[in-house]
Write a structure and sequence with these properties.
Elements (H helix, E strand, L loop, with lengths): L6 E5 L4 H11 L4 E6 L12 H11 L2 E6 L5 H15 L4 E4 L14 H26 L6 E4 L15 H20 L6 E6 L7 H7 L1 H5 L6 H11 L10 E3 H7 L37
Parallel strand pairs: 1-2, 1-4, 2-3, 4-5, 5-6, 6-7
């Protein structure tokens, strides 16, 4: 199934995984609403909604750059309406925007706590809510949230409980909305990487330049997202997917193509349950 003519509303699509998902869909000829805050170049982070739009158009899609703050209801609602006005509807919503700070309780100030919860949990709820009336009219509607499986192991909470709560809030939206909107035929699924993904978040917030060597490229998430969007929405909903396990089930066997540096051990990501092992032949860590 091609995404030609389909309209995707993607939060945080000016760079990283969000942009990669947009570019993969653009190669099919999809319409992309780039819903992100970055209108001017950041001194460290590459990409704006306008450079993303240029890349999407070059890849074969149509782009609508929109300045959106997912914390603001009016901003999200206006962006959704502009998308519908430009492209005639919305077929796919991607909740990609996220904030991160890996600090313990006493080191997490409430301003940062609020930011993570407003962008991650509230932003996912708000964006999904705004898109749902339009998704109900789509032929094969999908909502994809970039959030982890709901693994309640204390080891995911103890080091950074505020961040974990915010990310799991996104996953709770998937869990609840998948069932709530099952009668409407809207698919709600979550996708999460097994390894670190080579993005600005890894480079500047977590592991630096050296850390990027142990990552996979954004293309693995883009390929997995594309495969999800091809699924019949009424039959494929409520799933919490790990990128390589899902792609292995779709027939992918060569995961080396996604490695930034094949000579460097793959860095495991947070929140991957131990009962979801890597595909055959894939080794994580040293």
């Amino acid at each position: 199934m091609s995404l030609d003519g389909k309209t995707l509303f993607i939060t945080g699509a000016s760079r990283g995984i969000g942009l990669a998902i947009a570019l993969r869909a653009a190669r099919d000829g999809a319409n992309i609403a780039i819903a992100a805050k970055t209108a001017q170049a950041h001194k460290h982070l590459p990409g704006t909604i306008y450079t993303a739009a240029e890349d999407i158009e070059k890849a074969g899609g149509k782009a609508l750059p929109l300045i959106v703050d997912v914390r603001d209801e009016a901003s999200v609602s206006e962006a959704v309406e502009k998308t519908v006005a430009a492209f005639g509807g919305i077929d796919i919503c991607v909740n990609n925007a996220s904030a991160i700070q890996l600090t313990g309780t006493l080191a997490t100030d409430m301003k940062r706590y609020d930011l993570m919860h407003q962008i991650n949990a509230r932003g996912t709820f708000l964006t999904s809510r705004a898109c749902i009336p339009h998704l109900k009219r789509a032929a094969n509607p999908h909502v994809l949230t970039l959030s982890p499986p709901l693994d309640m192991s204390p080891r995911w909470f103890a080091p950074h409980v505020a961040y974990t709560m915010a990310k799991f809030g996104m996953s709770l939206c998937v869990l609840g909305m998948a069932e709530e909107f099952r009668p409407d035929g809207i698919a709600f699924n979550a996708l999460w990487p097994r390894t670190g993904i080579a993005t600005a978040a890894i480079q500047f917030a977590l592991a630096g330049e050296e850390g990027l060597r142990g990552c996979r490229t954004v293309e693995i998430m883009a390929d997995a997202a594309h495969a999800i969007f091809e699924k019949p929405a009424r039959e494929f909903t409520g799933a919490f997917l790990i990128d390589d396990t899902f792609l292995y089930g779709e027939g992918v066997r060569d995961f080396e193509v996604y490695r930034v540096d094949p000579t460097h051990p793959l860095m495991p990501d947070f929140f991957v349950p131990t009962d979801i092992p890597p595909p055959p032949g894939v080794k994580i860590g040293a």
